[in-house]
Amino acid sequence: MIDLHGIRKTIPKTQILLFDNMEFSLGEYRSVAITGRSGSGKTTLLKLLAGLDTVYDGVYTFENKIVSKSTSKNIEFRKKNIGLITQNYNLLEDRNVSANIQLALGRKKNTQKVNKLLDLVGLSNYGLKKISEISGGEAQRVAIARALIKKPKVLLADEPTGALDEKTEQEILALLERIKQTGARLIMVTHSDAVAKICDAQFILENGKLLLVNN
């Protein structure tokens, strides 16, 4: 489904090589953890996979089709295929939970779909709550629901449990396990051994390359 061939990228305005002829294939893995030291390029890699970062050499294919290097052309690609969860969740605090999830649908409204997702993420009675009124773990669940509402083929998550306590992390891990059953593939950047352990495979981003740790 996802294949990277000869990906080469330097940090803008520098000669520092971030990715050096990187190769990667999602293959049959349902879930993948990507680890590595801070500054190795993990978040940049997720942006590339989401079609948000298009300044690189090499070829990125999704379902055997080359992904464009035009950010504007990739909007439709992302809408059809990708769900993205960022570290800071990017939720609007002046709107309620349901409205934040609906944002991913644009002008289309689907209250039934929103309610089903709230049930899935364990927030069935939270629809009318403002983001400013909920905890960090609950905000993470809202972000996951928003990313899932368009039924993406691949869910990309940047440190999905990074700011959570151990108990809340376990709850989110259980939720991610349930999400795997919906058919979406998961690619997660993480520093957490617990997150890596629930994945089918773990890769480490090191010296500009993705290396398989286990499978």
Describe the protein in words.
The protein is an alpha/beta fold and 215 residues long. It has helices at 42-49, 74-81, 97-102, 111-120, 136-148, 166-180, 193-197; strands spanning 2-10, 17-25, 31-35, 57-62, 65-66, 82-85, 154-158, 185-189, 201-206, 209-214. Strand 4 and strand 5 (65-66) form a beta hairpin. The protein is globular, with a radius of gyration of 17 Å. The two termini are 18 Å apart.
Architecture (CATH level 2) name: 3-Layer(aba) Sandwich
Multimeric organization = single chain
End-to-end C-alpha gap = 18 Å
Amount of helix: 25-40%
SSE sequence, one letter per element: EEEHEEHEHHHEHEHEE
Give unreliable regions as ranges. none
* Average pLDDT for all residues: 92
Q: CATH topology, which one?
A: Rossmann fold
Biggest sheet, strands in spatial order?
Answer: 6-7-8-3-9-10
Secondary structure category: alpha/beta
Shape designation: globular
Please describe the structure with a list of short key phrases separated by commas or semicolons:
6-stranded mixed sheet; 30% helix; Rossmann fold; globular; alpha/beta; 27% strand; 4-stranded antiparallel sheet
Summarize the helices and strands and which ones pair or pack.
Blueprint: E1 2-10, E2 17-25, E3 31-35, H1 42-49, E4 57-62, E5 65-66, H2 74-81, E6 82-85, H3 97-102, H4 111-120, H5 136-148, E7 154-158, H6 166-180, E8 185-189, H7 193-197, E9 201-206, E10 209-214
Parallel strand pairs: 3-8, 3-9, 6-7, 7-8
Antiparallel strand pairs: 1-2, 1-4, 4-5, 9-10
Helix pairs in contact: 4-5
